[in-house]
Specification:
Structural class: alpha+beta
Number of strands: 7
InterPro entries: NUDIX_hydrolase-like_dom_sf, NUDIX_hydrolase_CS, NUDIX_hydrolase_dom, RppH
Largest sheet: 4 strands, mixed
Strand content: 25-35%
CATH architecture: Alpha-Beta Complex
Cofactor: a divalent metal cation; Mg(2+)
Family: Belongs to the Nudix hydrolase family. RppH subfamily.
Order of helices and strands: EEEEHEEEHH
CATH class: Alpha Beta
Pfam families: NUDIX
CATH superfamily: Nucleoside Triphosphate Pyrophosphohydrolase
Mean pLDDT: 90
Protein name: RNA pyrophosphohydrolase
Strand order of the largest sheet: 4-1-6-5
CATH topology: Nucleoside Triphosphate Pyrophosphohydrolase
Number of helices: 3
Helix content: 10-25%
Number of domains: 1
Distance between the termini: 59 Å
Low-confidence stretches: none
């Protein structure tokens, strides 16, 4: 009997969006409404790359889709594609069942707008139901366990950008 082909990683982008005070935007997943302080309920904006879309274009599209604004400029790009594997219980269920995890290109961006520009209510099926500004070093403790190594890398590698 033939074994099914192993699942691949979904190509994605992620945004570490810094405000003028050097804080980063984190958003609470709408499917974790009671996770006010719990790890895993909060994350950075991220999403899939469409076909041959340039990651630099994709990150602005994802910001627009997820937080209602793309008023930002790229200030750094992580040099590596960062990957995570889904926990075994989620493989075949999460990410439409087509991927084993995600392969992500992360960008640091400076937010050029005002807090009022951030609108989670523009999407009829929003991914997030709340947002706030957080310190960069808080990211790992906010992340779900299987994404924590990526958030640790981002907190370490973008630390020099956190100053106002």
């Amino acid at each position: 009997m033939d074994q099914p082909a192993p699942l691949d990683y979904r190509p994605c982008v992620g945004a570490v969006l810094f405000n003028r005070d050097g804080l980063v935007l984190v958003a609470r997943r709408a499917n974790f409404p009671n996770a006010e302080g719990a790890a895993g309920g909060w994350q950075l904006p991220q999403g899939g790359i469409d076909g041959a879309e340039d990651p630099r274009v994709a990150v602005f599209r994802e910001l627009e889709e997820e937080i209602g604004t793309a008023r930002a400029e790229i200030i750094a790009e992580h040099p590596d594609w960062l990957t995570y594997d889904l926990p075994p219980a989620l493989v075949g269920k999460a990410l439409h069942g087509r991927y084993r995890g995600q392969r992500q290109r992360w960008f640091a961006l400076r937010f050029l707008g005002e807090d009022g520009d951030i609108r989670l209510d523009l999407d009829p099926h929003p991914e997030f139901d709340a947002w706030r500004w957080a310190r960069l070093e808080e990211l790992p403790e906010l992340a779900v366990a299987f994404k924590r190594p990526i958030y640790e890398a981002l907190a370490r590698d973008f630390a020099g950008l956190a100053a106002p």
